[in-house]
Amino acid sequence: MPKKRRNGGRSKKNRGHTQGVPCTHCGRIVPKDKAIKRYTVRNMVDASSLRDIKDNRAFENFSIPKLYTKLQYCISCGIHLRVVRVRNHEVRRSQYLREKKSQRLSLKLVKFNAFSSSFLDYFFMF
Ligand SMILES: [Zn+2]
């Protein structure tokens, strides 16, 4: 049967099961390897409040702490909130082919380097 994605939209390599995580937006339990993960660093206060605080602070080199959050979305919310977009077949395919090509190229380079070093060693023996 033809598949839309080779990995089924997941990165579960040789595992049978991965833990479920709740979606940040809707609370749906989504497999951890399938969830769309974004790590965001935001200011605790908005820009105008930040200016007010900076004007009235008692210590000169005091910086307001930041908000570090890891967002995990289910696929439906990821699409709805436009974190990720729908890509057509060619685009999905081309990325996969590009990865494959780069792997092959690196393998060739390794082989070439091994060959050239041994060749040079042979050359400099005489
Ligand atoms: Zn969701």
Which features does this protein show?
alpha+beta, single chain, extended, first zn-finger domain of poly(adp-ribose) polymerase-1, 17% strand, binds zinc ion, two-stranded antiparallel sheet, 126 residues
What would you note in describing this structure?
It is built from three helices and four strands; from the N terminus they run βββαβαα. A two-stranded antiparallel sheet has the order 1-2. It has helices at 47-56, 75-80, 89-124; strands spanning 20-22, 29-31, 36-43, 66-73. The protein has a domain at 20-86: 2-Layer Sandwich (first zn-finger domain of poly(adp-ribose) polymerase-1). The protein binds zinc ion. Zinc ion binds at residues 23, 25-26, 28, 73-74, 76-77. Zinc ion (ZN) is lined by residues 23, 25-26, 28, 73-74, 76-77. Belongs to the eukaryotic ribosomal protein eS26 family.
Q: Could you describe the largest sheet, including whether it forms a barrel?
A: 2 strands, antiparallel
Oligomerization state: single chain
Question: What would you give as the CATH superfamily of one domain?
Answer: Ribosomal protein S26
pLDDT averaged over residues: 82
Distance between the termini: 60 Å
Instruction: Give the topology string: H per helix, E per strand.
Output: EEEHEHH
CATH class of one domain: Alpha Beta
* Strand runs, count: 4
Low-confidence stretches: none
**What compounds sit in this structure?**
zinc ion
Q: What spatial form do the alpha-carbon principal axes imply? A: extended
**Helix share, percent:** 40-55%
CATH fold call of one domain: first zn-finger domain of poly(adp-ribose) polymerase-1
Helical stretch count? Answer: 3
Protein name: 40S ribosomal protein S26
Organism: Stentor coeruleus
InterPro entries: Ribosomal_eS26, Ribosomal_eS26_sf
Family: Belongs to the eukaryotic ribosomal protein eS26 family.
